[in-house]
């Protein structure tokens, strides 16, 4: 019987792979590594397509710790230890924007489905929302409230709420269009680094995270954690 899976070679990376993301059309896998490279692979064959950087490589001292692909498949967003978010063109392989503002290393980045915003989480204890709709690429909101590193960020299925997970054992819900904090989610299932994993899981569908008035509800296998 033919194998139903294959391994994408990591021979191009010289240090450990820290983040992977699949393009919306399912054609490409993007990997980020501690070697400060970002590589693009064909999902079906595992063939290496390109390495992002070209004339503007990141310093090897600042490894890439998170990658995300825009919905149209034209750009890759990366977060690294140099405290910045980089936007890369898949056409040219070059960095087209650098988003600066965090005072700590980047732990997580996420591009909204419409490609208009990037959300980033950092070990400076903040999440930030950046606008990609104009050339300024400015930070439009700083989401402050976590008491430790923001290890994971994503969007709820409604496209209106940012979800952040932190080493402070909590998951928080924010409005995308403001700095309004909708809820803090805590409970037995939200502890330590698992909070970051649970924030990422919120991306799956609207049944996992839902808003009821000003209450945020997060279901963990039948256990609801609520917060105001």
Tell me about this structure.
The chain has one helix spanning 194-201, and strands at residues 17-22, 28-33, 38-42, 48-52, 64-69, 75-80, 84-89, 95-100, 106-111, 117-122, 126-131, 139-144, 150-155, 161-166, 171-175, 181-185, 209-212, 215-220, 223-227. 4% of the residues lie in helices and 47% in strands. The N and C termini lie far apart (53 Å). With 228 residues, it is mainly β.
Mean pLDDT: 78
Class by helix and strand content? mainly beta
Number of strands: 19
Strand order of the largest sheet: 1-2-3-4
Fraction of residues in helices? under 10%
Our estimate of the beta-strand percent is over 45%
Tell me the radius of gyration: 17 Å
CA-CA gap between termini: 53 Å
Helix/strand order: EEEEEEEEEEEEEEEEHEEE
Number of helices: 1
Ranges where pLDDT stays below 50 over 5 or more residues in a row are 188-192, 202-228
Query: Main sheet, how many strands, which sense, barrel?
Result: 4 strands, antiparallel
Principal-axes geometry comes out as globular
Features:
mainly beta; 1 helix; 228 residues
Produce a short descriptive summary.
This protein is mostly beta strands and 228 residues long. The chain has one helix at residues 194-201; strands spanning 17-22, 28-33, 38-42, 48-52, 64-69, 75-80, 84-89, 95-100, 106-111, 117-122, 126-131, 139-144, 150-155, 161-166, 171-175, 181-185, 209-212, 215-220, 223-227. The strands form five sheets. Strands 1-2-3-4 form a four-stranded antiparallel β-sheet, with no helix packed on it.
């Amino acid at each position: 019987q033919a194998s139903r899976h294959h391994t994408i070679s990591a021979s191009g990376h010289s240090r450990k792979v820290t983040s992977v993301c699949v393009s919306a059309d399912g054609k490409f896998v993007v990997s980020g590594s501690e070697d400060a490279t970002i590589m693009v692979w064909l999902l079906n064959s595992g063939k290496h397509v390109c390495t992002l950087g070209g004339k503007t490589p990141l310093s090897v001292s600042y490894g890439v710790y998170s990658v995300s692909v825009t919905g149209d498949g034209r750009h890759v967003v990366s977060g690294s230890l140099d405290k910045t978010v980089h936007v890369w063109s898949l056409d040219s392989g070059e960095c087209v924007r650098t988003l600066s503002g965090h005072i700590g290393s980047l732990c997580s980045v996420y591009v909204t489905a419409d490609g208009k915003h990037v959300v980033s989480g950092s070990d400076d204890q903040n999440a930030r929302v950046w606008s990609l709709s104009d050339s300024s690429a400015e930070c439009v909101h700083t989401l402050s409230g976590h008491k430790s590193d923001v290890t994971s960020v994503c969007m709820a299925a409604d496209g209106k709420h940012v979800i952040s997970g932190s080493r402070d054992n909590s998951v928080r819900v924010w409005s995308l269009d403001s700095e309004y904090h909708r809820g803090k989610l805590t409970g037995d299932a939200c502890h330590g680094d698992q909070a970051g994993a649970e924030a990422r899981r919120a991306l799956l569908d609207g049944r996992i995270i839902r808003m009821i008035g000003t209450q945020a509800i997060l279901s963990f296998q039948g256990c609801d954690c609520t917060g105001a």
